[in-house]
Amino acid sequence: AHLDRIAEVDGDLNAFLHVSAEEALATAADVDARRSAGDELGPLAGVPIAIKDVVVTKGLPTTAGSKILEGWIPPYDATLVERIKAAGLPILGKTNMDEFAMGSSTEHSAYGNTRNPWDLDRIPGGSGGGSAAAVAAFEAPLAIGTDTGGSIRQPGAVTGTVGAKPTYGGVSRYGLIAMASSLDQAGPVTRTVLDAALLHELIGGHDPRDSTSIPEALPRLADAARLGAAGDLKGLRVGVVKELSGEGYQEGVSARFAESLDTLRALGAEVVEVSCPHFTYALDAYYLIMPAEASSNLAKFDGMRFGLRVQPSEGPVTAERVMAATRGTGFGDEVKRRVILGTYALSAGYYDAYYGSAQKVRTLVQRDFAAAFDQADVLVSPTAPTTAFKFGEKLDDPLAMYLNDVATIPANLAGVPGVSVPNGLSDDGLPVGFQILAPAKADDRMYRVGAALE
Ligand code: GLN
Predict the structure, then answer these.
(1) Are residue 185 and residue 236 in the same domain, yes or no?
(2) Does residue 291 share a domain with residue 151?
(3) 213 in catalytic set
(4) What H or E segment, with its residue span, contains residue 194?
(5) Spatial separation of the C-alpha atoms in residues 255 and 380, rounded to whole Å
(6) pLDDT tier at 232 (50, 70, 90 boundaries)?
(7) Do 162 and 213 sit in the same domain of this protein?
(8) What is the DSSP string of 89-157?
(9) Residues enclosing ligand 1, CB less than 6 A?
């Protein structure tokens, strides 16, 4: 049914870069056989899933939305893909994204825009717009995204889906094509909070192949979602982050947010205001740290090892000139912009002024979180300041595009988990997201509160 749905609507949406119909049907048949044989299967066995194209999948094309990886077939699976396969979830295919996960609209994909199923003239968010659109349009019940500065949560908000970024280290990064290694986390994109918790439990937990993977077991996430769904939040302290609301937030977004705070109060939560003064600088710090790490991570795309290789059109064929020709042709403008920005920020004369200062701000953001979590069990804000914008609206203005992540970025800098849950429709008839942040390793709390709001 999902493959039929993809055939029916994906011509309009372009959520998928590759559909792996045969493989998906084979897995489904295998799960049926195991079920008939009386095998004990997990709760998501047989439920199809779509995977963001930045996650490597053995034998299936993986481009990260870039021309530079066109035609590359990974020889191995990411750890999270191994776990998905072992649990019997048919993989429907790979989803569209901004090139190397750089963007908030999926307009930076080298393979065309993904459209928002709510309004085909609007962006589905980014960088994981393909995964969010696929789930919102019922092409897939589950999807995987990655979130470096909001790329799971913001697409969730603007498509009316649930998008969860786990605690940094909670889900293995082995087999993710790295953007910024100290910020990247993979996580679930779903239609319900319980689905997200179940998928998080499936893909999460320790992996010796990722040196930043948390060694202890995950908290009980699905149980927390069930508890929240029962509607009891008595005694829970909810902190509204002063710096993540008000000016710059669309009226309908603020109105829906205020209504959900009332709902939380009605369920017994105590709503308090908290201040995180350094969040004001989080975006600036992110746009130094992220490009710095990305410029280093992307150095491996040199025309020698993976995918595209372009020979210089004239002159001698040296390794350096092949690299320049390949990267000049294979990378899009946004990727080039960030590689240049990151290289500059890391260069000897500027290191302290830019990268060094940004790292200090990162520490201040972490301290703000620690202080806020002394006063509240979870922190909340609108996920994004606006609903889905129109194609082209912010494409020529990188700063305006970057500002869409103002509420999601602090969590990545601190490594804390966050989820965006649907929060009704704004006055323009488009979906709004409600963001819940929890302390590191307390991902269960965000699912509890998220499920209570459903
Ligand atoms: N939109 C942000 C950026 O462009 C976040 C991207 C992400 O989370 N991968 O960097």
Answers:
(1) yes
(2) no
(3) no
(4) helix 193-203
(5) 14
(6) confident
(7) yes
(8) PPEEEEE--SGGG--SSSTT-TT-PPPBTTBTTB---SSSHHHHHHHHTTS-SEEEEEESSSTTHHHHH
(9) 101-104, 127, 147-151, 179, 290, 405
Structure tokens at 272: 């308090």
Q: Which of 104, 105, 127, 131 is catalytic?
A: 127
Assess whether 110 and 194 both reside in one domain.
Answer: yes
Confidence of residue 113 (pLDDT cuts 50, 70, 90): very high
User: Are 190 and 317 found together in one domain?
Assistant: no
CA distance 172 to 152: 16
Q: Are 305 and 74 contacting, i.e. CB atoms less than 8 angstroms apart?
A: no
What is the extent of the structural domain holding 311? 282-358
Which of 127, 284, 287, 399 has the most ligand 1 atoms within 8 A of CB, as the residue to mutate? 127
ipTM for the complex shown: 0.97
211 is catalytic: no
Of 358, 374, 403, the last residue of a domain is: 358
How many angstroms is it from 452 CA to the middle of ligand 1? 28
Residues 276 and 415 reside in one and the same domain: yes
Which of ligand 1's atoms lies nearest the C-alpha of 104? 1
* Ligand 1: centre distance to CA 99 (Å): 10
pLDDT tens digits along 129-153: 999 999 999 999 999 999 999 999 9
The active-site residue out of 66, 105, 131, 151 is 151
pLDDT of residue 245: 87
Contact 238, 264 (CB under 8 A): yes
Per the structure, how many domains does the chain have? 2
* d(CA 199, ligand 1 centre) in Å: 22
Tell me the CA–centroid distance for residue 56 and ligand 1, in Å: 19
Residues 375 and 341 in one domain: no
Residues 430-445: tens digit of each pLDDT = 999 999 999 999 999 9
User: Does residue 329 share a domain with residue 437?
Assistant: no
CATH number for the domain spanning 190: value is 3.90.1300.10
Which residue's CA is minimally distant from atom 5 of ligand 1?
Answer: 149
Domain ends where: 329, 358, 387? 358
**One of 52, 67, 94, 394 is an active-site residue; which one?**
52
> Do the beta carbons of residue 425 and residue 431 sit within 8 Å?
yes
